[in-house]
Amino acid sequence: MIATLLFVAFLAMLLLGVPIGAALGLAGAACIALANLDTQWYGLLAVPQNFYAGLGKYPLLAIPMFVLVGSIFDRSGVALRLVNFAIAIVGRGPGMLPLVAIAVAMFLGGISGSGPANAAAVGAVMIAAMSRAGYPASYSASVVGAAAATDILIPPSVAFIVYSVLVPGASVPALFAAGMIPGVLAGIALMVPAVWMARRHGMGKAEADLPRPPFWRSLRDASWGLIAPVLILGGMRAGWFTPTEAAVVAVFYGLFVGMVIHRTIQVRDLFTILRESGELSAVILLVVSLAGIFAYSLSTLGVIDPVTKAIVNSGLGEYGVLALLILMLVTVGMFLDGVSIFLIFVPLLLPIVQYYKWDPVWFGVILTLKVALGQFTPPLAVNLMVSCRIAGVPMESTVRWVGWMLASMAFVMVLVIAFPSLATWLPRVLGY
């Protein structure tokens, strides 16, 4: 009965508009208290203990640093320079600007790990450029929202860091390596329908009349941004620093590029950058810590074992269970961000992973692909919400465009399920 109350209280608070972190913590604390009435509330000592335990993990130190990196590169003008360089490579013509938007979003995914932040950075540059070239605003918002979803697959990824904390045997370097090939495949898969729809509907005819940036000049301008993911990922692979230390290196590199090279960040801008990234990091880490209380209550109340047994004994079989989890998590992804989904569902799903002997790194990539799909699935997709706000269009106007891109990324997920080596080959080769 108390276990049922846990989920009912959590869902009720969400429907009432209570922030997800507070809903997790309050529901968990209330159920811990009810389960320990006979011990004169001493059981409530578990609440502060698990609040701290949720934060006291070394890999989580990377989260505020990567959030700060995203804020720094957003203000440094790197996105605009990358766009000009990409246009110089692919040229002008119908369907080329959507291709550029997706490519730049994928590249920025190698610098920061937040999908909505990526949508904001790319959308601020690309939606206006696509509008000038004759693309409908709803189509532009769809492309940017979908492209930003690749961010949580391509390392560094905040979602992968949280997953590594929750799952034994899934290290951050292994997850980063595992997400690389599926992330690139997802980006390529998005390019196909984006270019096809643009040409089929005659979009971007004015694009061919716009000047093409000179290649060498745009390469020189974009070179400092191009070096960033090489420094972050290459440094980790070479053993120069851990993923957490790589995040700190990336912060100082971004400040150097923004303040010394491009001079788009002034000393007076640092307070705003630090405040914005500090607020976002605090929200993420607060949700992580409060989710620790929720996870403890799940374990203490014995919720996980009955749920696991009900799923594995449902008669659906291994792939039927996997299909059920995909449907559930894609649906949940429309309402919640990736970090929250991981914190709520991974403790429930981990026994199922262990029962079927699924590779935890492979399952982490599959789980992240599901979340990525949810991030641009209407009606409450978090990435699409950001791009629609920038484009000034209602989300319902994007449905006719987004459906094709959802299908293409879902195809990539099917490929990774059918061929697990797409996720496990690179970590194995790199020795993770």
UniProtKB/TrEMBL annotation:
Entry annotated with the keyword Cell inner membrane: yes
Membrane topology of this protein: Multi-pass membrane protein
Assigned keywords, A-Z: Cell inner membrane, Cell membrane, Membrane, Transmembrane, Transmembrane helix, Transport
MF-aspect GO terms: transmembrane transporter activity
InterPro entries per the UniProt record, alphabetical: DctM (IPR010656), TRAP_DctM (IPR004681)
Cellular component GO terms, alphabetical: plasma membrane
Pfam family for this entry, one: DctM
Intracellular or extracellular location(s): Cell inner membrane
Domain TRAP C4-dicarboxylate transport system permease DctM subunit: 7-421
Transmembrane segments: 51-73, 85-111, 142-166, 172-196, 222-240, 246-265, 277-299, 319-349, 361-381, 401-426
Signal peptide extent: none
Oligomeric and partner information: The complex comprises the extracytoplasmic solute receptor protein and the two transmembrane proteins.
Protein task: Part of the tripartite ATP-independent periplasmic (TRAP) transport system.
Entry's family note: Belongs to the TRAP transporter large permease family.
Name assigned to this protein: TRAP transporter large permease protein
Organism: Ramlibacter cellulosilyticus
